[in-house]
Amino acid sequence: MEMRDLKVHFDLRASALARLIGGGGETVKAVDGVNITLRRGEVLGLVGESGSGKTTLGRALLGLVRPTSGQIMYGEQDLAKLPQRHLRLLRRRLQMVFQDPHAALNPAMDLRTAIGHPLRIHGLVSNKDEARARVVDALERVGLTPAKQFLDKLPAELSGGQKQRAVIARAIICGPELLVADEPISMLDMSVRAKILELMLDLKRELDLTYVYITHDLATAKFFCDRVAIMYLGRVVEIGPTEEIFADPKHPYTRALLGAVPDPDPERQVPRDLPRGEIPDAAAPPHGCAFHPRCPLAFEPCGWEARDLRAMFERRWIQFGEDMLSKEEPLVSSLNDVGPGEKVARLRVPSGRQLSELTQLFDEARAETPDDPLWRGVESIDSDDDAVVVRFRTGIDPGLLRQNDVDVACHLHDPSLRPVAQ
Ligand SMILES: Nc1ncnc2c1ncn2[C@@H]1O[C@H](COP(=O)(O)OP(=O)(O)OP(=O)(O)O)[C@@H](O)[C@H]1O
């Protein structure tokens, strides 16, 4: 399966007020230009924080959400353009295992009915005995044995791990080629997590399956995946063999994620030390490299914009406290109106204040945090009669660059921009 420049954008409805004043709705770029070739028989991990687009990408692969553009080539067919009717036929070969096994099973349906359901939908059995035999086989494969004892059980009679086994049995019963497993173990007890992953690996070998494994948990990705794709705000920022990515992560975001792996011993939880800031709003992602506002190594071409100035002041106020906030915030209040992608910030002097206060503020901010990467993006700071004008350098969208067996989307690795990778 090959994803080519795959995009899934969601149009959010504008609020009634926004519509009245002529504003359109926002667009969330959940998946924004993904190119991945899925190899037969591999386990590909989609790894990233919440909101990075993993689930949307997984759903798109199964035709559960329509791509906005791009292709999903599956053999000769482009799933992105296939009519629903044809997709339904294909779906028996493309299955999903969901995060929550409790929600995935109808509480009123016994396992015989629930697991056999896809067989009936796809017309793969002609009578009850055949269906029963296939369900028994699936139950045995997932370790719910003796199978006959499980046929008439309801989900409420099963443990969490048993339920997830039943969900997996339902996913494999039609003989799929690809399984998209979306956090399949995150809601299970610690004690059964490894067993479920081991079961999935056994099934992969026995049934010649290919997996897409969606997770924010790097520890299981390391154990389970042949390759991992690290996603950030709808894009793949690094992809390659699991071993190589874990041994030598190249993207600053990957490095930050790996640094944030919690210690399995709860007494020694390592704090999540992802770089400053939250994941930005996917409806108004940062320019250039979307990670640049959080990146400690961001430099000139990474996509600096006027919004980053506001974030720099916020960091300053967090560092230096309330007094500084109340003194300085009114001076730079015009930054509140800055929209995405603006390359020039014009900070007007508020009435009753002096231009010299504003220029001094910039001098102080720069002197006190000279290592803040933001300054690398500032091209000039000038002042005219009633404003300080900050201009930012032009950013470049990072594409994937090949580094040994890994592709990484980071300017640090582009010799034409920075000769030595850091
Ligand atoms: N149906 C939808 N309508 C609007 N926005 C959506 C929809 N589905 C997902 N999104 C948005 O798309 C972005 C990516 O979401 P997605 O669920 O794919 O991320 P994720 O990495 O799987 O996160 P999580 O681990 O929390 O599931 C988010 O900003 C999310 O709010």
TrEMBL record:
PROSITE patterns xref list: ABC_TRANSPORTER_1, ABC_TRANSPORTER_2
InterPro entries referenced in this protein's UniProt entry, alphabetically: AAA+_ATPase, ABC_transp_ATP-bind, ABC_transporter-like_ATP-bd, ABC_transporter-like_CS, Oligopep_ABC_C, P-loop_NTPase
Keyword list (alphabetical) reads: ATP-binding, Nucleotide-binding, Transport
Domain annotation ABC transporter: ranges: 12-258
Gene3D superfamilies for this protein: P-loop containing nucleotide triphosphate hydrolases (3.40.50.300)
Q: Which GO terms describe its molecular function?
A: ATP binding; ATP hydrolysis activity
Could you confirm whether the keyword Cell division appears in this record?
no
The answer to whether UniProt assigns keyword Cell membrane to this entry is: no
GO biological process assignments: peptide transport; transmembrane transport
Q: Which NCBIfam families match?
A: oligo_HPY
Query: In which family does this protein belong, per the annotation?
Result: Belongs to the ABC transporter superfamily.
Q: What is this protein called?
A: ATP-binding cassette domain-containing protein
